[in-house]
Amino acid sequence: FAWVSVNDGWTPRPSVKNGSGGIVSVAGSRAVVEGASVCRSGAATGWHCGIILQRDASVVYLQGTVSELIRTNVCAEPGDSGGSFVSGEQAQGVASGGFGDCGAGGFTYFQPINEILTIYGLSLVTTAGNPPQMSTGTCTGFPVTAAATLNGGQAVYQPKSLYQSAVAGVHYGCLDADDGVDFDLYLERRNGSAWSTVATSNGSGADEKISYTGPAGSYRYRVVSSSGSGPYTLGYKAP
C-alpha cells in the first residue's frame, strides 16, 4: 500500500461517495469485528456492501502473498483497487484486491486503515460526531446523505437495503424537498422477517424530521410522496 501527498490545490475531505449521489461522512477509524457490515466505494463499480468474513487474512496474488488483510464478501472489479471501505461512519481501510465480480459475486480484501496511518505517521481527516443540524428546510452535518427524485404517490426506501445499528441510541433523519410538494418520512425497524414503523414525520410540507431513540438492530427510512413530484435529499445518522 502507499499514500499520496497533495498540494494546496487539493483539500482532503472526511467523506466517501455512496453511489447514490450522496456521501458518507467519516468520523473516525474504529475497527469493527468479524460479521460486521461494511461498504466499499470504488471507481469502477461504485458502492457495494457486505460483511467482514475474516481478519488477519492472507491472499496469494500473482505478485506474491500479502498478509494481515481483511476478507469480505463485498464484490469488486478491476479499477476498484484503492477504494474506501467504511462501516457506518468509521473508516476501515482501502481495497487491495479480490476474486469474482459484481455480477456473480466474490470476495474482496482490504488493507486496514489504522495500519497505514501508524506506519506512515498520518492522521485521518474526520468530521465531528455531534448531532446534526435539522433547521427548517436544511439538513446538514449528517454522516450519510442520499439524493433522488420522487414521483407523485411513490414510496422509496433509503438506503436501498437497510442500515445496521450496533448499539442503542438516537436515530436522526432529515428530509429536505422543494416547496410545493408534500413528502413524508418514516423510520422502520426490522423485527424478525417483518418491518414495523417506529417513527413518523408526516406534516403537510416538503421537509420532515425524525429523532427516535431505539435499540440496536436493522433500520431503514421510507420516503413517501403524498402529493407532488420532485427531488429530495435525505440525511440520517445512526447511534
From TrEMBL:
Cited InterPro entries: Pept_S1A_streptogrisin, Peptidase_S1_PA, Peptidase_S1_PA_chymotrypsin, Trypsin_dom
- Gene Ontology biological-process entries: proteolysis
Give one Pfam family: Trypsin
Q: Does the keyword Protease apply?
A: yes
Q: Which CDD domains match?
A: alphaLP-like
| One MF term in the entry's GO annotations | serine-type endopeptidase activity
Protein family membership: Belongs to the peptidase S1 family.
Q: What is this protein called?
A: Trypsin
Q: What is the organism field in this record?
A: Streptosporangium subroseum
